[in-house]
Amino acid sequence: MHDAIKFASGPDSVRMECKTASDFLLHSAMRPPWCVRIGDMSAMPPCPKCSSEFAYQDGSIYVCPECAHEWASDAAVDLAEEKRVVRDSVGNELQDGDAVTVIKDLKVKGSSLVVKMGTKVKNIRLVEGDHDIDCRIDGIGAMQLKSEFVKKA
What we know:
This protein is mostly beta strands. It is built from one helix and 16 strands. It folds into two domains: about 5-70, N-terminal domain of TfIIb (Single Sheet), CATH 2.20.25.10; about 85-150, SH3 type barrels (Roll). Helices cover about 5% and strands about 30% of the residues. The strands form six sheets. Strands 2-1-3 form a three-stranded antiparallel sheet. A three-stranded antiparallel sheet has the order 4-5-6, with no helix packed on it. It is elongated and about 60 Å long.
């Protein structure tokens, strides 16, 4: 015998139950975003991102209908996401707000300007992408640098 499935569209919603798993699959295209198994409600973990209690299992993953976060059902869920580590040319870990020094002359694309070796850059911001550092250099302006061409000051 299959667990009944409960559909709910909000806190004061009308609830509808499917008696079999095949009914559930039949209605899955029409199901509202909040869907949980009645028999498994206590076993469903809350969403690690927004702590919603309406998370449901879809195949081998859990899905949160409120924030659209998905996570593996067989993996241990850690609330802290993996922190990206950016290192300079020497291997020191860089953080937002650090000051760095350019280790070689860098040509600025699209202009005749050159960022000279030894130029100190203050208050960097770390960003995703090929160029790890977003900064402002005096005399040149805002630009992005690769972390392999700087060292922590």
